[in-house]
Design goal:
The complex is a heterodimer. Helix content of chain A is about 40%, strand content about 20%. By secondary structure, chain A is α+β, with helices and mostly antiparallel strands. Chain A has a five-stranded antiparallel beta sheet with strand order 1-2-3-5-4, with helices on one face. In chain A, strands 6-8-9 form a three-stranded antiparallel beta sheet. A two-stranded antiparallel ribbon of chain A has the order 7-10. In chain A, α4 packs antiparallel against α7 and α5 runs antiparallel to α6. In chain B, about 70% of the residues lie in helices and about 0% in strands. By secondary structure, chain B is an all-alpha fold. In chain B, α1 packs antiparallel against α2, α2 runs antiparallel to α3 and α2 packs parallel to α4. The relative contact order of chain B is 0.22. Chain B has four helices and no strands. The chains are: A alpha+beta, B mainly alpha. The interface between A and B is medium-sized, with 11 and 15 residues.
């Protein structure tokens, strides 16, 4: 039995949960996201007079590992870290760029055309490939962790369960169905992110999907890691080939498909050759009759 | 390979093929060698012009138009020359020459490398 009305209890819960930023330069405005590792707020940076996103880690995350890791990843597709510190209650926080945009899953509801979706996918791959190159694997790639900006810029966010490529096995992390089978055993390498990207690619495809694209997604998200693309660059390159109308590595074209592709790519040439042949046939068969 | 060379080769090959089709016209079969040479030279001339144009202008439409125009012009000059019996084959030479010129113009736009801009 409670002696306080529900509204009052909710308010007390909010107040207790809202971090105390009074000793920092940030003024919290509202909660904008919540995950297993912490809560993200929109905040005002009073010193630089700009809006930022501040992630407050849950109690127990003593070392601001995520902020340190993100600080190593300076890439246009990864939100930069501005500042990090600790709150009076001991919780760690870090401030980063506030991304104005939509989550990938929300963006897809607007039904952009397939080429636009795939170009977006290439940008996601670029950011992930960059992280891999710096020795970091994300381990929780999913549409909810990808933001699309107003001008089509892409940001891979929530690096909370990211780990070093050469790191020791970690507790299972990830989100089904984007979680690779090996993650349930604590294992992960670059192909773990390739798996998740394959699942994301599947989300981007129309129904029914073009066969070469479906084959790329299938190869990327194969249960056996050895059967996947060896790295993100290879996956992105195959998607790029599909976008350019070239044959993809993951799919062997049938003869009619090859002919159709050749026809699409050489329309003017075929038209000219066809015209030439038609003219020749016309002259051969009909011109004598016109004399 | 630079574009004028592409034009030269494409013009020679396509011109020779075009000339070879004269074999289907029995009246001129005895002059196949002359026709083959003349047609090849005509194709090469169009090819070189289109090749140099392609170095300056990067436009498929411009290549097609120039090729067709020069193809027609050179075909007209060839067609002006009468056969031994006095016959002129304007239609048989100029119409294919027009299409073949467009084909050469197109190829010079799509193939070969243009010099880098300073």
């Amino acid at each position: 039995m409670s002696f306080l009305p529900d509204r009052a209890l909710d308010h007390l819960r909010d107040v207790a949960e809202t971090p105390d930023f009074s000793e920092t330069r940030y003024q919290v405005e509202e909660e904008i996201g919540r995950g297993g590792m912490g809560i993200v707020y929109r905040a005002w940076d009073a010193q630089l007079e700009r809006r930022v996103a501040v992630k407050v880690m849950n109690a127990g995350y003593a070392i601001n590992r995520e902020a340190k890791l993100l600080a190593q990843l300076e890439h246009p597709g990864i939100a930069p870290v501005y500042d990090a510190g600790a709150l009076p209650d001991g919780r760690c926080y870090y401030a980063m760029r506030l991304i104005q945009g939509r989550r990938l899953d929300e963006f897809l509801r607007a039904e952009p055309a397939l080429p636009a979706r795939l170009r977006l996918f290439e940008k996601i791959c670029e950011a992930v490939a960059f992280a891999h190159n710096r020795g970091v694997i994300h381990c929780d790639l999913k549409p909810q962790n990808i933001m699309v900006g107003e001008f089509g810029e892409v940001f891979v966010v929530d690096w909370g369960v990211a780990r070093a490529l050469d790191g020791a096995p970690a507790p299972p992390a990830g989100t089904p169905p984007y979680m690779a089978p090996e993650q349930s055993g604590g294992g992960a390498d670059a192909r773990t992110d390739v798996f998740a990207l394959g699942r994301i690619l599947r989300d981007l495809m129309p129904d029914p999907p073009p066969r070469p694209l479906a084959a790329i997604a299938q190869k990327a998200s194969a249960r056996d890691a050895a059967a996947r693309f060896a790295n993100v660059q290879q996956l992105a390159a195959d998607v790029g080939r599909f976008l350019d109308g070239q044959p993809v590595a993951a799919y062997r074209d049938t003869v009619p498909e090859r002919l159709a592709r050749f026809g699409r790519q050489n329309q003017v040439l075929l038209l000219l050759l066809g015209t030439y042949l038609a003219v020749k046939l016309f002259l051969y068969f009909l011109a004598p009759a016109l004399k | 390979m630079n574009k004028p060379v592409v034009g030269l080769i494409a013009g020679a090959v396509l011109g020779a093929i075009d000339g070879a089709t004269a074999w289907f016209t029995p009246a001129v079969r005895s002059e196949m060698t002359t026709i083959l040479m003349g047609s090849s030279v005509k194709g090469m001339a169009v090819g070189i012009i289109c090749g140099f144009l392609a170095r300056k202008v990067h436009s498929t439409a411009a290549g097609l138009a120039a090729g067709a125009g020069f193809g027609l012009l050179f075909a007209y000059l060839v067609a002006l020359m009468p056969e031994p019996d006095g016959t002129h084959y304007y239609l048989q030479i100029m119409v294919p020459g027009f299409v073949l010129g467009a084909l050469i113009g197109f190829l010079t736009q799509k193939m070969g490398t243009a010099p880098a801009k300073a």
